[in-house]
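Support request, please re-run this one:
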Amino acid sequence: MERELTECRRCPRLVQWREQVARERRRAFAKEEYWGRPVPGFGDPAARVLLMGLAPAAHGANRTGRMFTGDRSGDFLYAALARTGLANQASSTARGDGLALNGAWIAAAVRCAPPANRPTPAERDACAAWSERELRLLEHVRVIVCLGGFAWAAALRLTRALTDAPARASQPAPRFGHGSELAGQPYSLIGCYHPSQQNTFTGRLTEPMIDAVLQRSLTLAGIEPQAR
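Re-run finished. Output below.
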């Protein structure tokens, strides 16, 4: 699946943008070779917790080829994962840097970097098939931590598609909020503000807040807390 995903060209706007960014590059990374393709999920194949983000950052995962790697959002997220025992180290700068996830998998609702970090609903829906295939392969996932409202909406659609629950699908979707929960079988959802600089620099999302969500995800997934 990973090879197929990284060759995907379904969304012309995203293809144009991700490749333009990879050609023009940011001055700080001018000598680096950018990934410039769809970014696959990664982590522990036996994961019980799936963390779903928005999309790769133009000069983060679109550069490094690994979700939340090489940008400020990732710095905040991986430090929290390490504190919770879901990662073996508190930072991630590049593929092959020794990072390993324990009981967790990281993916995004949209797999290509979007202009202005704003994918469209149509682009989200075009990526849904990849998310469905991925989640079917991750047989042990029981909890999806939705990093932001866009991921929350995508995860709602994803889990409804996989569980084939028309009665639940007809009910009003619960609103996203930090700490919001939606219990379900086999998947439960929990909301978390996205670890963007806009949220972390302003104090809208703090370390104790994200730690609480991750600890709650362990409880919902039936994982013994391993805080470090």
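The first helix runs from residue 2 to 6. The radius of gyration is 17 Å.
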